[in-house]
Write a structure and sequence with these properties.
The protein contains 28 helices and 19 strands. The chain is an alpha/beta fold. Its EC number is 3.5.4.6.
Length: 869
């Protein structure tokens, strides 16, 4: 006889149909603890039963119970397998599948796992995908990462049985259809909320003309736009492209991808980009017997040099439209002169601040919802795991395809530093060498006025008790590696050489006593370094403060007068959020004054470029706007409803969302007018998500082309998932974050990259964070070593940086391929990017699965990344 554990009444044990069952009525109640730690007597009716002296079963008793359970379970399985009558055993429930072909035992291989995709709106891509691809390894992508083939039957979850303590184990869950319907309805509502967030961003991008094809600069003669509205911020929208490919098939090209009727004249880039094959030569120095010329010369094989001549530009005349700043703080465009908001209706519609905050509140509500956060977190983890599987299975194929590409490697793929501040774009050694050279060659230059007395450069250093020999890297003290962590105030002081603001004014300002001549000379040296490298490019951010309306003209004349033009450089204008400082010093009376100072000169030059010819020419090299300041500052909301700018007269700085809206709204109106005139438009690329409130990221999601930093996305999984679905560009600077807000090993860059976000590497402030002459390569090098990025990953990061950048379409074609704007492998040219087609095919395939799930659309009917366009 099998041993029976103490406490069980063996007389109640019955044998029925060859199986043993226990009468649960005779199972004793659990022991009850008394104050002294022992159990008291348990009284049941008139019988007193002495309980054990321990609150738990002893080791021997527990083993006997475990043995008994195993025997009962084995006996049940044997009886079920022999076809005996269906009975019940306590604690040994039986789960059966309703589908006749579904096995009752566990599947023995992954390929035999039953399909569960009928529970989701998305069907696997691989089921309907064609197999006509000839690219090596792409078939393996679909095979390895699509869901397994459909089994002969479903798992039958809707008819599964639940484990209960009752003697009837076959309780069918199909009786609980109402509960299951609620679950499916919640899932549909969740996906619908995500889909609406995607549509909101599309609305704001279309209204502000920040998409591909909205900017006249995109029209290079070959690209002529699209016949339909399929353009996104970074190219053709993946979902729109998949639909076009589905409707067209693999043999033809959809009419929407055919050249549309020409909307704009071919954009003229001046100075002209260098030819495909050229070498850099510097003109001889005076010591070598030639005239000095800081401007480098790009020489082609024929020996034709490029230069800059302001007379080359044709300045258009005035336009018949008019502009007016309405009572809500937004410049509007009218066909006739107006003096009041009610005089006429604006030509272009701009989202109101009420609409903006309603949409922002909706996005904030979605990303704060508990089930939504859980869903997004699981999807992000799934995407990271899927990337791990891809790399394990296809890393060798990527390496083989890269080895087959002649000439191209990491060093000669184009890279763009999409986030670097101009006044700190040099390293400390370069600045030190420049200061020493000026002290030796130009000590008698009058550089500053103090207390009404002009001072020469030599006198300035005499007042500091310093000579050229005394200067060193340590003396400059501009690195932010030690004492700036979470101290943005100390970081700002690092912009002052030797801690002296007067030296910053002399060497690092465009508007000073010498007209920014020293900074212009330093800028030319930096441009020369970039042109020598040939493959490194940058987008320098230069400040417009909004304190006076003539700042734009001063900046434009500084660039034009010093001929600060380079094939490797474009500009962004950053607006510091310093209203509270200007208000305290009496420079502005309300927030509307800052809006006027920043945007009114741009509307003036758009209406009549002849009034500001230098500004008109300079704006052709300006990509967009940036909003900068310390995001970690606390934002206290003192208003239930934010006032309009003309009545924002308090000393408190407006919140981030308020700043971003008025930059977006006025840029939207300006872009509409400039596009109508055939002038280049602008994009919004603010600093966002470096510190402070994660809500800043929601503002940028709606209004911005791309962002800088974005490290706080790691705390908001739902918003990170939205950034992934819309492929919003994120220019990350791990070395900068390491010194200010987040240590290098905790930076989310590798996780973002694995997930599939559109991330790139940038330097931010080489003067404070880098040591070498090539800070961008330094950034790539450290990331490759710490995060173990492969050569293909570095090439993909470089490709992302070019896509995020604002360089002209003609240049991007040369750098990335003729149809770089198509998603997936269809837009890739490995001979230019060194990114394997199989990787971009995987990225596109994965993104499409997520988009189809969110939008509940039809699955991709073919491997659209395999077909040529």
């Amino acid at each position: 006889m099998d041993p029976i554990a103490p406490g069980f009444d063996t007389s109640s044990t019955q044998i029925q149909d060859g199986r043993r069952s226990l009468d649960r009525e005779n199972i004793p109640s659990p022991p009850i603890l008394s104050r002294d730690g022992y159990t008291s007597a348990i009284t049941s009716g008139e019988d007193d039963v002495q309980a054990t002296r321990d609150a738990v079963f002893g080791y021997e008793e527990a083993k006997r119970l475990e043995s008994l359970e195993h025997k009962l379970y084995s006996h049940r399985r044997y009886s079920q397998g022999s076809g005996s009558n269906r009975g019940s055993t306590v604690n040994s429930p039986r789960i059966t599948a309703t589908h006749p072909k579904t096995p009752t035992t566990r599947p023995t291989s992954i390929s035999s796992l039953p399909r569960m995709d009928h529970l989701l709106p998305l069907q696997p891509l691989a089921e309907n995908a064609t197999t006509t691809d000839n690219t090596p390894g792409l078939q393996d992508v679909a095979h390895d990462f699509a869901l397994p083939p459909a089994a002969s039957g479903h798992f039958g979850l809707e008819n599964a049985h639940t484990v209960t303590l009752d003697d009837e184990p076959e309780i069918n869950l199909s009786k609980l259809d109402h509960q299951q319907t609620l679950s499916q309805q919640e899932l549909r509502d969740l996906l619908s909320s995500f889909n609406k967030c995607l549509q909101l961003r599309d609305k704001y991008m279309a209204c502000s003309l920040q998409r591909l094809g909205d900017n006249p600069r995109d029209y290079d003669g070959a690209f002529k736009g699209f016949a339909e509205d399929i353009g996104g911020v970074s190219g053709v929208r993946p979902d729109a492209y998949a639909t076009l490919r589905k409707n067209t098939g693999t043999s033809g090209q959809h009419p929407s991808l055919q050249p549309a009727p020409q909307q704009f004249a071919k954009w003229d880039i001046y100075p002209r980009p260098p030819p495909p094959h050229w070498h850099w030569t510097a003109k001889p120095h005076p010591e070598q017997g030639g005239p000095i010329d800081d401007q480098p010369q790009l020489v082609s094989e024929e020996g034709d040099g490029d230069g800059f001549d302001f007379g080359h530009f044709e300045i258009p005349g005035a336009h018949e439209w008019h502009y007016h700043l309405d009572s809500k703080g937004v410049f509007q465009i009218y066909s006739t002169p107006v003096h009041d908001d009610n005089d006429s209706k604006p030509i272009f519609a701009v989202p109101t601040i009420r609409d903006y905050y309603v949409d922002l509140d909706y996005v904030l509500g979605v990303i704060a919802d508990g089930p939504t956060k859980s869903f997004a977190y699981r999807r992000l983890k799934y995407l990271q795991g899927k990337w791990g599987m891809y790399t394990l299975l296809n890393e060798h194929k990527e390496l083989q395809s890269m080895k087959a590409v002649p000439h191209r490697d990491f060093y000669n793929v184009r890279k763009v530093d999409t986030h670097v501040h101009h006044s700190s774009s040099m390293n400390q050694k370069h600045l030190l060498r420049f200061i020493k050279s000026k002290m030796k060659r130009s000590p008698n230059d009058i550089v500053i006025v103090r207390d009404g007395h002009p001072l020469t450069l030599a006198q300035v250093f005499e007042s500091l008790n310093l000579t050229a020999y005394d200067l060193s890297i340590d003396t400059l003290d501009m690195h932010a590696h030690q004492d700036s962590f979470h101290r943005f105030d100390k970081f700002n002081l690092k912009y002052n050489p030797i801690g002296e603001s007067r030296l910053r004014e002399i060497f690092l300002k465009t508007d000073n006593y010498i007209g920014g001549r020293y900074l212009a000379d330093l800028t030319k040296e930096l441009m020369q370094d970039l042109e020598q490298s040939k493959y490194q490019n940058c987008e320098w951010r230069i400040s417009i403060y909004g304190r006076s309306p003539d700042e734009w003209d001063k900046l434009a004349k500084w660039v034009i007068h010093h001929k600060l033009y380079s094939h490797n450089v474009r500009w962004l204008v950053q607006i510091p959020r310093l209203y509270n400082v200007y208000k305290m010093t009496g420079q502005v009376e309300n927030f509307e004054r800052i809006i006027r100072n920043v945007f009114e000169p741009l509307f003036e030059v758009t209406k009549d470029p002849s009034l500001h010819p230098e500004l008109h020419v300079f704006l052709q090299r300006v990509i967009g706007f940036d909003s900068v300041d310390d995001e970690s500052k606390t934002e206290r909301r003192v208003y239930d409803k934010f006032p309009y700018p003309r009545i924002w007269e308090t000393k408190q700085n407006p919140p981030y969302s308020y700043w971003v809206y008025y930059m977006y709204a006025n840029m939207t109106s300006l872009n509409s007018w400039r596009r109508e005139r055939g002038f280049n438009t602008f994009v919004l690329r603010p600093h966002c998500g470096e510190a402070g409130d994660p809500d800043h990221l929601s503002c940028a999601y709606l209004t911005s082309h791309s962002i800088s930093h974005g490290i706080l996305l790691r705390k908001v999984p739902a918003l990170q998932y939205l950034f992934y679905l819309k492929q919003v560009g994120v220019a990350m600077s791990p070395l900068s974050n390491n010194a200010l807000f987040l240590t290098y090993e905790r930076n989310p860059l590798p996780e973002y990259f694995k997930t599939g976000l559109n991330v790139s590497l940038s330097t931010d402030d080489p003067l404070q964070f880098h040591f070498t002459k090539e800070p961008l390569l330094e950034e790539y090098s450290v990331a490759a070593h710490i995060y173990k990025f492969s050569q293909a990953s570095l090439a993909e990061l470089a490709r992302n940086s070019v896509i995020q950048s604002g360089f002209e379409m003609e240049i991007k074609r040369h750098w990335l391929g003729q149809k770089w704007y198509l998603p997936g492998a269809a837009g890739n040219d490995i001979n230019k990017t060194n990114v394997p087609d199989i990787r971009l095919a995987f990225r596109y395939h994965t993104l499409m699965e997520e988009l189809q799930m969110i939008t509940s659309g039809e699955p991709v009917q073919e491997n659209s990344y395999t077909a040529g366009v």
